[in-house]
Amino acid sequence: MAFPALQDPAIADLSLLRFISAELTRGYFLEHNEAKYTERRERVYTCMRIPKELEKLMFFGIFLCLDAFLYVFTLLPLRVFLAMFRFITLPCYGLRSHRGLTASDRRLLQPAQVCDMLKGVILVICYFMMHYVDYSMMYHLIRGQSVIKLYIIYNMLEVADRLISSFGQDILDALYWTATEPKERKRAHIGVIPHFIMAVLYVFLHAILIMVQATTLNVAFNSHNKSLLTIMMSNNFVEIKGSVFKKFEKNNLFQMSNSDIKERFTNYVLLLIVCLRNMEQFSWNPDHFWVLFPDVCMVVASEIAVDIVKHAFITKFNDITADVYSEYRASLAFDLVSSRQKNAYTDYSDSVSRRMGFIPLPLAVLLIRVVTSSIKVQGVLAYVCVVLFYCGLISLKVLNSIVLLGKSCQYVKEAKMEEKLFNPVPTATPGKPAGKQQGTFKSTQGISTDENGSTSVTNQPVHQKENMPSLLITSNSDQFLTTPDGEEKDISQDSSELKHRSAKKDLLEIDRFTICGNRID
């Protein structure tokens, strides 16, 4: 009995030779799946654009950190001097007459001057406290440990730095607001002195932690076989594993970008400290600098390579275009421009601290301590050089600020964010949750959309329906010093309109969410 299928002449004609011939001559048409292949090509182009766009953002962000860092050494001492001059001379003028003066003019010190005085006093106290920490003993204590112990210590220090930074700016903001809060309000704090003590302890402990980091890096530089330095640099590539396989939205990527900017700038300062300590040990022999130079280049190159690979794969896996880095840069520029206004809500250095988690005070204390111990100033000529160097720092600060402000205005204009400078986000009323307060205000602006109809992440938050609740929670640190002295007016709104709605998070509301480990569910 024959099978029916075998009686078909086309099937009966099959042979191995015919099969091989069909495989060799078989054709296909890619245009039948044009959308799929076009998307794949765009992904390749996006990965090729990531290094350029990312480094443009990093370059701009590093100079923002540099501007805030130079402020501590240049303009802050001058502002403290002016505040002290006002503190001494204003009572003499006040004895004449208080007529015609506003409430702010009758103050002994303006709120900004009070904050400057607090920063200056904290710097001076922590600087003298750092003299009781022996750098040489710490160096030899760390050098006596095994390689694996130092590797574990370095990882623990990185985690501790993120944890203490996330809490440190809140401590400083609490001190500034407690010291400048209007006196007619009901007291709801423990007092200025306890907050000041906590701030001093924080800056001192954070400076010690950074010193241990710099010492560990110095030990790695001075090791004979460079094995420790290699292991520490390989730790950066472990960061890729913990990041690229997680779900990222645009806001999450913005947080990570800010954290990477802060981390890269901090590493540059640590490398400067290591070079200063090594050059001092070799009597400032320039030949020794060229011995350190390859290791410095290896550290910098590994940081850049890790950031590029990490961001390239994150954007690939989450379908994020490279244009998003221009929006991130515009948001950072908006912070700078808004802080330069006449009636700004906060100081620029504090704005950078809240946005990126970069707190310049502990790093400045450590750098001053290292420089003063490494460089001996003796003679009139040496003091003249110090004065000239200080004038050079001021010139660099002013030049950097002017260039940054000009570029920031350009980025804000390109992103069409000028109107937001005149329509600031309402601040939260004390005693009300941030999320609840956001629901009591309606945005005065529409939501701009791009060519594909997707909502721009640089717009101010408005109420929209979302399928998934936002994974981010707005930090209150941006709202500590933004409450005006006058009483705020509550705007009533029907509660039924707020049902099943959640506030859409904006890049301008994001600050230090990734400092504690970049945790994204």
TrEMBL record:
GO terms for biological process: cartilage development; ossification; positive regulation of cilium assembly. Residues 423-502 are annotated as: Disordered. GO terms for cellular component: ciliary basal body; endoplasmic reticulum membrane. Residues 489-502 have a biased composition (Basic and acidic residues). It is found in: Membrane. Pfam families: DUF747. The keyword Membrane applies. InterPro entries: Tatp1. The keyword Transmembrane helix applies. It comes from the Eukaryota. The chain crosses the membrane at residues 57-74, 117-133, 192-212, 358-375, 381-406. Keywords: Chondrogenesis, Membrane, Osteogenesis, Transmembrane, Transmembrane helix. Coiled coil: none annotated. Belongs to the TAPT1 family. This is Transmembrane anterior posterior transformation 1. It comes from Ficedula albicollis (Collared flycatcher).
